[in-house]
Every structure is written in C-alpha cells, then in structure tokens.
Amino acid sequence: MERPSLEINLPDTHEEGKLYVVDSLNNLNKLNVCPDGSQHVLDEEENTGGTGENMAGSNIRNQCLFFVTFILSLIVSLALVSFVIFLIIQTRNKMDQISSRLISEKKNIEDLKKMNKMILKHLNQSGIKV
C-alpha cells in the first residue's frame, strides 16, 4: 500500500519542481531583460492579470509628461529668443549713439583744423613767424 502512495506523491513533487523552475526562470528573465524601474510595472501587471490597465495609465502619464516638457522647452526658448532680440536692439542703440558722437567729434575736429589754418594764415600775413 505504501508503494502506490509513493508513486502518486512522486509525480506531484515533480510537477511542483517544474513550476518552481519555471518561476525561477521567469524571474531571472525579468531581471535580465527589464531595468529596475520597469520590474515594478511588470509585477503590477502580473497582479492585475495583465489586462493592460497599467499600460494605458502609464502611456497617458508619459504623454502628459512629454506635453509638459515640450511646453516648458517652448517657453524657455521664447524667453531666450526675446532676450537675444533685446540685446540686439540695445547694441544697435549704443552703436547709433557712438556713431553720432563720432560724427559730431569729426565735425569739431574739422572746425578746429579750419580755425588753425585761418590762424596760421593770419599769422603769416602779419609777418610773425613761429
């Protein structure tokens, strides 16, 4: 009588061993294929029965994160472009001021040269030599 019970228990133990080996291989495969962060998602998917509810929620969350990141990058780009345009306008104004100063100084120098020539001409006519 003991012999038939051993034969019945032996296949059950063998089946449990097979299940243990399959579970171990699945866990090993998850560790090798998935990074640490996605392992949590796979465990949750197994707990929910793999219906894909987590995938849809994760997909929507990723889309929202992408959209927010895209909007923030557009705002930062707009701010940088505005700042560059402001700097260009300021530089142009400063250059205009400097150029107008140079023109006025050039006129003053030309006037001084004319006065110097007139003084030298007057001194030469009066007979005083320098």
Explain the overall architecture.
The chain crosses the membrane at residues 65-89. Keywords: Membrane, Transmembrane, Transmembrane helix. This is LSME1 protein. The chain has helices at 2-33, 36-48, 53-126. The longest helix has 74 residues, at 53-126. Residues 1-10 have low confidence and may be disordered. Helix content is 92%, strand content 0%. The chain contains three helices and no strands. The chain is mainly alpha-helical and 130 residues long.
User: In percent, how much strand structure appears in the residues?
Assistant: under 5%
Separation, N- and C-terminal Cα atoms = 147 Å
Work out the helix count: 3
Number of strands: 0
Q: Describe the largest sheet.
A: none
Tell me, rounded to a whole number, the average pLDDT.
77
Unreliably modeled segments: 1-10
Helical percent range?
over 70%
State the shape.
Answer: rod-shaped
Radius of gyration over all CA atoms, rounded? 45 Å
- What structural category characterises the helix and strand content? mainly alpha
Could you give the order of the helices and strands?
HHH
Pfam families: DUF4577
InterPro entries: DUF4577
Organism: Herpetotheres cachinnans (Laughing falcon)
Keywords: Membrane, Transmembrane, Transmembrane helix
